[in-house]
Specification:
The chain is of the alpha/beta class. The protein contains 9 helices and 10 strands. The chain has helices spanning 41-49, 71-77, 94-108, 123-135, 152-164, 182-198, 210-216, 234-238, 241-248, and strands spanning 3-12, 15-25, 30-34, 56-61, 64-65, 79-82, 170-174, 202-206, 219-224, 227-232. It has a 6-stranded mixed beta sheet, with helices on both faces. It starts with a strand and ends in a 7-residue tail after the last helix. The model is unreliable at 250-255 (pLDDT under 50).
């Protein structure tokens, strides 16, 4: 297993948000976490990525206990993370956003990114940034646009580019299509499908759009009030009576 969390508990003061949550994610798998609002999905994400330390339980990455490792250390070990509200450098252009991510990865690996006095990135860094932007649908004419003027869907796509530029081994996606139009959601789903086909990256995601979940997920876990009520093959989880009652709704159908 690339990621193994056991007995995760999390409290905010007297409020207990997670109650002994356990999950295992296999290499190259797309693992989805769903549940109603307030189920604890984002809190679990924060624990898995090191933004929050759990009150109890353990998180293991490739056999190494990272329970107490902060987010930046987990990023160096291979975690990539996107957020419900995209985090990008709005005042910088699209290409520079991706270049910064590539240079950060190289520096963390002890590699040179070129002379400190040069304003432009090293040629190979620039080419990699351009390849990533092209791969995710940003035309060359837009590379020098300031990121703050992007649409919501394009901001999410740029954040995705920035995250992938770190070459993560496991990609943590918290509501990757939140707030997107139907066409943007479809485009993001196609990008994720291509990513699964073209790379070995493991994906852990939360998502409210159930059509996307059932299209992408290899395994599905359902949270309700901080407890796991189902975990397994998406088709089996979809047909689980408890899941239908508390989340999908009685008689809910998917194509």
């Amino acid at each position: 297993m690339i990621l193994d969390a056991q007995g995760i508990e999390m409290s905010y003061g007297a409020l207990k948000v997670l109650h002994g949550v356990s999950l295992q994610v296999a290499e190259k798998q797309t693992f989805a976490i769903i549940g109603p609002n307030g189920a604890g999905k984002t809190t679990l994400f924060k624990v898995l990525t090191g933004e929050r330390l759990p009150s109890a339980g353990t998180v293991t990455f490739r056999g190494e206990d990272v329970t107490k490792a902060p987010a930046y250390q987990r990023a160096r070990k291979g975690f990539g993370r996107t957020f419900q509200v995209s985090r990008i450098f709005g005042e910088l252009d699209l290409k520079t956003n991706v270049v910064i991510s590539i240079e950060t990865r190289l520096r963390a690996g002890g590699k040179s990114v070129g002379p400190w006095w040069k304003w432009t990135p090293a040629a190979e860094v620039g080419r990699e940034a351009e390849e990533i932007l092209e791969r995710f649908g940003f035309a060359r004419s837009r590379w020098e646009d300031e990121a703050q003027y992007l649409s919501h869907g394009d901001r999410k796509r740029l954040e995705f580019c920035v995250t992938l530029a770190t070459r993560p081994e496991i990609l943590m996606l918290d509501e990757p299509t939140a707030g997107m139009s139907r066409s943007d959601r479809r485009e993001m789903t196609q990008l994720l499908t291509r990513l699964k086909a073209d790379t070995d990256v493991t994906i852990v995601m939360t998502e409210h759009d159930m059509d996307i979940i059932f299209e992408l997920a290899d395994r599905l876990m359902v949270l309700n009030y901080g407890e796991v009520i189902a975990n397994g093959d998406p088709a089996a989880v979809r047909d689980d009576p408890t899941v239908k009652r508390v989340y999908l709704g009685q008689g809910h159908q998917h194509a």
